[in-house]
Amino acid sequence: MGDNLNIRGPQDAAKINIHEPWEVEYWTKKWGITKQQLIDAVRAVGVQTKDVARYLGKPH
């Protein structure tokens, strides 16, 4: 099943998809970070939201 393009937040809140612009926008606004900070965090710890939040020092 493909992504619902009408939803502008994460399709799966447990994972971060940095290849979907609306997900990048959602997470960067939620955590008050830049796109590059999000990309760097995902590269460092993977796509699991809890791991990225911990890495960034942000609430999950």
Question: How many angstroms does the end-to-end distance come to?
Answer: 27 Å
Estimate the helix proportion, in percent: 40-55%
Number of strands: 0
N-to-C SSE string, H for helix and E for strand = HHH
Helix- and strand-based class? mainly alpha
Q: Any low-confidence stretches, pLDDT <50, length ≥5?
A: none
Mean pLDDT across every amino acid position: 89
Count of helical regions? 3
* Coarse shape: globular
Radius of gyration: 11 Å
Protein architecture, described:
With 60 residues, the chain is mainly alpha-helical. 50% of the residues lie in helices and 0% in strands. It has helices spanning 21-31, 35-45, 49-56. Helix 2 crosses helix 3. The longest helix is centred in the middle third of the chain and has 11 residues, at 21-31. 12% of the residues are buried.
Précis, in short:
Helix content is 50%, strand content 0%. By secondary structure, the protein is mainly alpha-helical. The protein is globular, with a radius of gyration of 11 Å.
What's the SSE blueprint?
Blueprint: H1 21-31, H2 35-45, H3 49-56
Task: Supply database-style keywords.
3 helices; 60 residues; 50% helix; mainly alpha
